[in-house]
User: Fold these one by one.
Assistant:
Number 1:
Amino acid sequence: MILTFILIIIKITSIVQLANSESRPWCLGGVGLCRGKDISSEQYSHTMTIVPRSIVSAPKAFVLGGQRSTATSSYVSLSSITTVNLEDMTLMTTTKASFSSGDAARPQRSGHSAVAYQGSILVFGGVVVNRTESKNPVATNEVIWLEQGSAFSPPIWRVLFNRTRGGVNGTVPVPRQNAAAAVFSNTLWIFGGIDNDTQILNDTWSFDIQRRKWTRHFPSVGGRVPRDSNSNTGLHKSAMIATLDGRYLLLYGGWGLSSPNGSSTAEPAEPQNKLWAFEVASRNWELVDMDLSDMDNPVSNDATLLLLETQSFDSDGNIKNGAELVVASTGFWTPRSEAKPSSYKMWVTVKSSITSGAFLELLPALFNDTDPSNSKSSKIPFSNWAIFISNKTSTVLQVNANNT
């Protein structure tokens, strides 16, 4: 399971290549996909979302949207859906996905959020091309779900919530891109993002998928909100996941402001490396103190989270189910501050909590103010599983053998 997750992370950090509507194997060490040529078609601000195995389908990774350059014409349409079969690592792209008639969704999209839901993909927000409104791409707050097709019908996007131009008096989230998103049962959760005015947002919302209704969740008086290293509230490009029981959301990384709020030089482009937890019952956020005493924890450009289910035996010999949090993050490094971007090297770290499967049992203490033994200052230990450093010719892999 661990090695499978690591391999998937390698694919996420690799260049994604679009192909025709036919299966194609991975080649070039995972850097590209076999198309009869070695030149990859670069793509960024897209999403790659893993949909677990079902009775009728192998586990797949769905690649959606994004852009190939800063030009509006380079935005990738959601009519083009690329899937990677995670069993045999073959790829297929269809360009025939449509939108349900009468809906106002715009197919070209970048900077959206995507989560697995009911064996398919649920998409929120992003920036879309809408030339009737603006010459530049504009943010959206749409929620759309992919109804997968069959051998006799193409897939179709169903719009669950149509785009609004504003927050509609605080009843729906303002249009945004790069929001953190997670789903549990029939509820989509989002946090933060960045709006049309490049302002970083700090709000928490839930969307009832069946009732198609938004609810904003305000923290209690004195409650905390995820913030960056300069104490500015709000983040964008964070990774978020719901716990297995739906009681908590976990949020890691993201980007904040490059200087304290109000500074004329502040830019929304400062990567972060903190872990936050949201308690659904109390609607409050708390910072999780990660014990990283044995390793560095560099700030990351992107990250993804996994709750890995574990099993152990108690003192009576009974099986005890548990979970550990796995954090995979990516970034780049260079030994010289004056180095050109062409010399930057990509890195990936994979680290995990080490709690003997008790990670979820430690979360309630973060929100417990009455029991002195449950101090919010308690640290949760983490350890490195693997470190990847990539250059033009190879990828250096270091794996902690005790965790494989």
Number 2:
Amino acid sequence: MATIDANPRGIPRAPFVDNVSAFLDGSDHESTLAKFQEIQVGLETKIPEIEKSLELVVFLASKEDDSEPIITDFELNDTLWVKAKIPKTKTVNLWLGANVMLEYPIEEAKQLLESKLGSARISLAQVEEDLEYLKEQITTMEVNMARVYNDDVRQRKVQKNMQVVSQTPAPFKVICLTGGPCGGKTSSVSILSDLFESLGWRVYRVPETATILFGGGVHFPDMEEDQAYSFQKSILAVMIQIENTYRELAKLNSKRGIKTVIICDRGAMDPSAYMKREDWLRMLDELHLAAKGAESFYSLENNATRTEGLELARALDTAVMSAWVGHASLQVIDNVSVQNFMEKCDRVVQAVSTRLGLTADSNRYGKQVKKHKFLVKNFSLGMQFPVQYREFLVEHRYLVNTQGDGTQTRIRRRVEVGTSTVHLNSTIRYPPQNGQRVEIRRNINPREFESLRTQVDPTRVAINKVRRCFLFNDRYYQLDIYKSPSQGLVLLEAYLDYDETGKVMVPEWLDCEDVTDKPGYSMYDLALKENDEMIVCGTGNCEVL
């Protein structure tokens, strides 16, 4: 064993490990173990010899009073034995080792051998005990070395994961506040900016492009038709360029781990509310923004002319809302369900916070908005629809949840009917918090979509449905007609206040039953294979079996 350095009072000196491999390889536990094993082997060989010698001495002592000599077989070598006579004797010669043999009286020889046998047995027991202890210490040391190695691997893995997390882009969100004149957009921009800045987000405020240009002396009512068209075209081009400038900054922030929100005062669809349909389509084509095959779905009947007065404000409000119908995250904040202007601004903040999953902060603002769901009876696609709508083919697929915490993850593919435009996104729905569910939605590219499709939940089927999006009484609705599973099931969804009644929320020309939070009507339950045939629908009512 190596000598341990210590000070005069016996405090050991801690070794400095310069070369870890050499330090670990330099342990002398193997030589110590070999030394004790060698002692054990020696004692296990010596004890039988002492026992045999003691037996002979005891035998000679028993024959001490006999007059006849002892007849025995004597081994000359491995293959040669002879008869021998041992005359009566009172002494024996004992081999002590180191070429030393001494003569002892039989009784003394017996006592000596018994003493040596007892000492040898005690020594063997001590060596076996020490060997067992040494083996335990060696095992403990090896386990400790393995634990140190495993801990190092774990620490490296944690550091690697932290690096991966640090390299994961931070989210950036784009919020467009739009509507007719004096609708509260400017105040809402200020309130939202304060909220997100207090939460540590970088906030970019995109100004209203038309206001900037009007500030240069432009008076819209004085323009001729060709001037108005050129001006609107410039507004749209400048608006898109300004938004893209802020988007590029937000993307760079995202790479640096900085959460960013872009708040737009009006969006790129707003100019369509101030133009004739044919002028809007021509403008999109000139700016290379037209989606081929989708011409019939652009803001169809928005032909208002810019003049003064409340009647125009109401008309523009409706036209702007219609321009955004079909957007996946459209939220309408009406004037009917609020008592004053500040409550309307609070509703804006609450709706944005709910959409982004910031429920802890959204609860401070006004009424709580929740997604309501209604079962629609006696409806078919061929029936006359009393309001304008946009129609989409939608496919949902749920992914495997490996966490086991109730979180639901799904991917969606949406195609507008009559076009080839495809929109892909993923949604993570977390377990309820304070009685409210939180959903985080983000757009994904085709490569991400195909990658996530490999993780689909084998216990659930794909959901295919036709979705109609429409506005009614300043509220935005989505009507889903299921193709599979549960063919013929029709559900209506809308984000509405908790305290509104079903009569207020639901269009009177739809025969509806409120099934919000009712088991069996969530997409997650409908997609379950064993529930594939649980909801039976026909031309009449749908029943949950």
Number 3:
Amino acid sequence: MAEVFGFVFIALVLMAVVVYVVGRIHGPEPVEIAVEQPARTDQPPLG
């Protein structure tokens, strides 16, 4: 099981690095994609 865990850990690290590098290259544009998603209205506002 150690080999499987190591492989999954390496895959997650590589994915995180790729996402970070792509985010740095494209700048703040990916943030706007998350903002465009409609907010859920069934949850009460915090505070």
Number 4:
Amino acid sequence: MTAPEFVIESVEGPERVTYRASGRTAVGIGRQADCTLRLDHSAVSRNHALLTRHAEQWFVSDLNSRHGTMLNGRRLDPGASRPVFDGDLLTVRPWTLRCTIGSQTSLERRVAMRDDGARADVTVAVFDRSIARAPTGRLLHLLSQATEHIGAAVSEADVRELILATVLEGSALERAALIRVPPEADSAAVLACRPERETDRLPLSRTLLHAARGGRVATLSAASTVAPLGESLLDAGVHTAVCAPAGEGVFLYLDAQSARKPVDDETAAFCGSLGSLYALADSNLRRAGAERRSARLNAQLDAAREVQRRLVPRDAGRCGPALYASVMVPGIVVAGDLFDIIELDDGQVGFFLGDVTGKGVGPSLTMAAAQASLHLALREHRDPAQAATAVNRFLAERSETGAFVTCWIGVIDPRAGEVRCVDAGHGYALLKRANTDQEPEPLRIGRGIPLGIDPEGEYEVESRPIAPGDRVVLFSDGVVEQTNTLGEQFTWARALAALVGSPSAEADVHALQAAVRTFSAGVAQGDDLTIGSIQLT
């Protein structure tokens, strides 16, 4: 399945930023030259923040940056990960970045910016809201009503409708729109416009928007006896226009075609207050929506982790002729790893470690079915290939579309001095010989297809010699694919190096887990991290 496109675009900042992840699973943000998304400003830390994708979900972590990272106006705790959803605003001062995930689903329409010719008969005024005359009388009443009613709004559309209706009534201008304009952009996205039929005909003034970017209300007015504003606005017939900041990269824009008096400071303050009211309400709605989605995601993952916790064996112990140790640490979105060890008849011991595709409750049920059925199939057949074939057919006929399991399955036979194994698309297995300080040997055996894809799939057993003291070390892709602050992965090579000199099953698990933790310091663990070491005694 192709991951949804992930685009990061600045809505505020000293220079325009547009970045497409294009299949990446990690995007490092910072001032350092090798950061994936480099923001060259003294306020940005060298390694500031990290975006990571696990399954189809993106997450952001602050990497103990000097000035912090904010998501939808809320500061992130250093090292903690928060889910990122379509439309979220990520702030790395002095930039505010909008995250778009997947295809553009909004109904926003874009209109081109117009250059206003410099003319002596056109007046540009900028009002500082801190010293402008506050709204009184009718305008104050309208503003109070809007403030009261906006609390009952349950959607962005409700908020936008209220703001535009109120500003048109109070200003007596003819058109009003909420627009989003990235820095240095040549066009603007129209979030809402009243009258709606005017959306495609808005003659947005580049001069006016530039004047309003400093956080003040800007107006343009033409003398009543001269042509409408600006050379390029002439055809549009605009005589008066107002622009007020309304959030990060968002503006409240009004204009009128008929001749009228210049906008006074009270009306300008009224427009500015409505812009601020919109920014606050939009931020609150965005934050509340993100928290609801995050809470739903966390509830699903908690349920999945509980299923997982109940099925795995104790962290260490003896199982027939083998000692074993294991660790399973759930990731921020994943609950799909499986691990088990089973004492079989004839003094043999079976074991497996695998990973279910997908994240959340659905895949966790596939994990539970795979874990239980593999346990029973190994007890019944005492043969990895027969167990894999039976479980593959079971999953392919019953699991949800697209869900499958990569798995490494082994049976140790002490009397034969061998480990018989099947690799169903997993690949992460090592053989650590006793009494040696050398790197372990990758257990490269023929790779079969993952379980659950083709019900007619068949698997063949391969054997490797094993002696007392030797250990089979298995781990999930959460080990080798864990990233550091630069977005680099842990890799096979680091896994091999971490196990040099390790003397026991428990030491294997502790050494590999510690190496991953040290490598990824400051970055949340995205995927499940599961390690198992089985030692023949």
